[in-house]
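In response to the reviewer comment on reproducibility (Comment 2.3), we provide here a single inverse folding case reported in full, input and output, so that an independent group could reproduce the run without further information from us. The structure tokens appear first.
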């Protein structure tokens, strides 16, 4: 269901669908359940709810109380939010960190996906929510791409308690949430989705023991600044890794380092099938507001009269094209040599700050 105010008979409809397991709500206003009679549960086990509001109160203008209930029964009225009628819930996707759930349901969730529309910076709130979800196997927290990440912003030095999620197998979260959730988790899939501010912090993620019985199969780290030591640590600490991705916001590895990487270090990852090493510069800052309310323009001017930035000369274009061709040739030679030392490696992505990301696939024929 998508977009609009849902009718009051929503509850009776859903309660009469005993086989309903998966429900998606997008852009909906959801009225609360209200009745003097006990509420029957909704059998949904997987809920995806985005840009929706589950009201916890009655609105006489919207809910037609007089047409629905006898006035003398109002004193016995039960008002229950929609999400509190889902006792069988196991998987939840939402953009509301304060979503209200029935008692006991958070503890039985096995999958929780939280898509935040902005970066609130309140790590303690997230920690408190996750403390009540000890059986999570899958956790994903993302922040809207329109949110600007400020790597120069001061990081709180106030210690945060670690979150114990012993059943966790898949983790995709921004920094610094990853640092608080990793202890004790037997991860198989790890992705840090916002820049890790220092090399030391990135090394602490890789060098942290991930327990036994659930080796990390794929890992993706997003670095603020490239440092060769991070990928070298990955080759030492993740021996069972099949897919590795190291993305940097600033800086990139040298051609010589890349060449040596595939010969001396990648062979330590005997099961490696996919490798990505490339730069992802930060998005441009949002436009600033004009300082003047009125701007003088010449109504007689033509667009062609406006000054344009100087174009690159033909010689400059030739030099830029030559640099790009040389880098592509160097990367291709790296990958060709790597293939001899890494027999399972079948997909490689490489790219620098000023170069496009290229992908090479092994010919299996």
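Designed residues, in position order:
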């Amino acid at each position: 269901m998508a977009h609009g105010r849902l009718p009051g008979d929503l509850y009776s409809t859903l309660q009469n669908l005993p086989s309903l397991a998966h429900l998606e709500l997008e852009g909906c206003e959801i009225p609360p359940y209200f009745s003097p009679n006990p509420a029957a549960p909704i059998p949904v086990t997987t809920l995806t709810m985005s840009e929706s509001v589950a009201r916890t109160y009655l609105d006489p203008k919207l809910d037609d109380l007089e047409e629905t209930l006898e006035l003398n029964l109002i004193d016995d009225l039960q008002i229950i939010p929609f999400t509190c009628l889902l006792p069988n819930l196991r998987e939840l996707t939402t953009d509301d960190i304060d979503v209200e759930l029935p008692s006991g349901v958070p503890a039985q969730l096995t999958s929780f996906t939280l898509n935040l529309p902005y970066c609130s910076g309140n790590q303690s709130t997230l920690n408190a929510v996750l403390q009540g979800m000890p059986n999570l196997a899958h956790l994903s927290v993302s922040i809207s791409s329109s949110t600007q990440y400020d790597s120069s912003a001061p990081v709180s030095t106030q210690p945060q308690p670690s979150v114990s999620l012993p059943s966790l197998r898949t983790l995709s979260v921004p920094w610094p949430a990853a640092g608080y959730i990793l202890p004790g988790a037997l991860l198989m899939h790890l992705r840090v989705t916002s820049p890790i501010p220092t090399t030391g912090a990135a090394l602490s993620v890789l060098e942290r023991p991930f327990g036994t019985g659930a080796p990390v199969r794929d890992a993706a780290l997003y670095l603020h600044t490239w440092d060769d030591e991070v990928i070298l640590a990955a080759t030492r600490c993740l021996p069972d890794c099949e897919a590795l991705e190291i993305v940097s916001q600033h800086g990139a590895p040298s051609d010589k380092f890349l060449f040596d990487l595939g010969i001396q270090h990648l062979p330590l990852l005997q099961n490696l099938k996919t490798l990505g090493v490339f730069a992802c510069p930060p998005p441009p800052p949002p436009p600033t507001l004009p300082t003047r309310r009125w701007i003088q323009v010449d109504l007689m001017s033509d667009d062609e009269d406006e000054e344009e930035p100087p174009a690159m000369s033909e010689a400059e274009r030739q030099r830029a094209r030559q640099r790009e061709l040389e880098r592509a040739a160097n990367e291709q030679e790296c990958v060709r040599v790597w293939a001899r030392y890494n027999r399972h490696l079948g997909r490689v992505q490489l790219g620098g700050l000023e170069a496009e990301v290229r992908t090479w696939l092994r010919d299996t024929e």
